[in-house]
Amino acid sequence: MQGDIVSGVLLPLILAFIMFSLGLGLTPADFRRILAQPRALLVGVACHFVLLPLVCYLMLTLLGMGGVFAVGFMILAACPTGSTSNLLTYLARGDVALALSFTAVASVLTIFTLPLVVTWALGHFLGAARAVDVPVGLMMGQVALVLGVPVSLGMWARRRFTAWALRFEPRATKVATVLFVLIVVLAVAKNWALLVDNFGSLAPFAVALNLSMLTLGFAVAWAARLSYRQSVTLGIETAVQNAALALVIASTVLKDDAMAIPGALYGVLMYAGGLVFALAMRRFGRGRATDAAHAA
C-alpha cells in the first residue's frame, strides 16, 4: 500500500511541482525566441530526440544489456531534457535563453514521442506481448498531465502574479531539487538489493551514456556551424534528462519498479558529468567570440 502511494501519488505530484517551478521561469517570449533561431532548434531536436535514443540503443546492443534495465535506459533516453540543464548552461556560460526555450519545446514534443519509444523498447527487449499491453493513450495523457499542465500553470502564475513569481521562483527551484533527490532516494531504497546486485554494470553504462551525449551533442552542434555558446548548450541539453519523469513512467504507468533503477542512477550520475563538462567548457570558452557562429 505504501509503495502504491509513493508510485501513484507522490512521484507524479513531485514531478508536477518540478515542472511548475520550470514554468515560473518561462515566458511566451522563450517560445518565440527559438523560432528566431530555427537551426539551433532543429539541431537540438535531432540530437535529443533522434541521436540520444539511437546511441542508447546501440550501446545497449553492443554491451548485451537487455530486459527491464534496457527498457529503463530507453525510457530515460526518451524523456525531455531536465530543468537543471538551464543551471548547467549558466555555469558553462552557454546560451541560457536557448536552454530555456529548448527545455520548454522538448517538454511538449515528449508528450508524443515518449510513448512511441517506450512501446518499441518494451516489444524489442521484453517481447511483443508486453508492448501490446502498454496503455499508449493513458501514457500520453499522463505525460501531458505531469509536464504540460504544471508548466502552463507556472507560466500563467508568472504572468498573473509577476512579482510573487519572480520572488518565489528561486526558492521553488531549490525545493524542486530537494524533491528530486527525495524521489531518487525513495526509488533506490525501494529497490536497494536489485541496485546493489547490478550496480557494477548499470553505473558504468550510465556514466558512458552521459559523457557520450555531452560530447556528441556539442560536436554535432559545432559541425552544424552553431556558435560556441549554442554548441555548449546543446551538448548539455542532449545529455541532461528529466529523470523524474523516467521514474514516473516506470513506476506509475508501467508499474515496474526495476525499470526505474536506470533513471534513478542516471539522474544522480548525470550531474557529475554535466558539472565537469560545464566547468571545462566555461574555462575553454574564455576569450572566445561566443556570440557568432564559428568561421568557415
UniProtKB/TrEMBL annotation:
<dbReference type="InterPro" id="IPR038770">
    <property type="entry name" value="Na+/solute_symporter_sf"/>
</dbReference>
<dbReference type="InterPro" id="IPR004710">
    <property type="entry name" value="Bilac:Na_transpt"/>
</dbReference>
<feature type="transmembrane region" description="Helical">
    <location>
        <begin position="175"/>
        <end position="195"/>
    </location>
</feature>
<dbReference type="Pfam" id="PF01758">
    <property type="entry name" value="SBF"/>
</dbReference>
<keyword id="KW-0812">Transmembrane</keyword>
<feature type="transmembrane region" description="Helical">
    <location>
        <begin position="40"/>
        <end position="60"/>
    </location>
</feature>
<keyword id="KW-0472">Membrane</keyword>
<feature type="transmembrane region" description="Helical">
    <location>
        <begin position="96"/>
        <end position="122"/>
    </location>
</feature>
<feature type="transmembrane region" description="Helical">
    <location>
        <begin position="134"/>
        <end position="154"/>
    </location>
</feature>
<feature type="transmembrane region" description="Helical">
    <location>
        <begin position="6"/>
        <end position="28"/>
    </location>
</feature>
<keyword id="KW-1133">Transmembrane helix</keyword>
<feature type="transmembrane region" description="Helical">
    <location>
        <begin position="66"/>
        <end position="89"/>
    </location>
</feature>
<dbReference type="InterPro" id="IPR002657">
    <property type="entry name" value="BilAc:Na_symport/Acr3"/>
</dbReference>
<feature type="transmembrane region" description="Helical">
    <location>
        <begin position="234"/>
        <end position="254"/>
    </location>
</feature>
<dbReference type="GO" id="GO:0016020">
    <property type="term" value="C:membrane"/>
</dbReference>
<feature type="transmembrane region" description="Helical">
    <location>
        <begin position="201"/>
        <end position="222"/>
    </location>
</feature>
<feature type="transmembrane region" description="Helical">
    <location>
        <begin position="260"/>
        <end position="280"/>
    </location>
</feature>
<protein>
    <submittedName>
        <fullName>BASS family bile acid:Na+ symporter</fullName>
    </submittedName>
</protein>
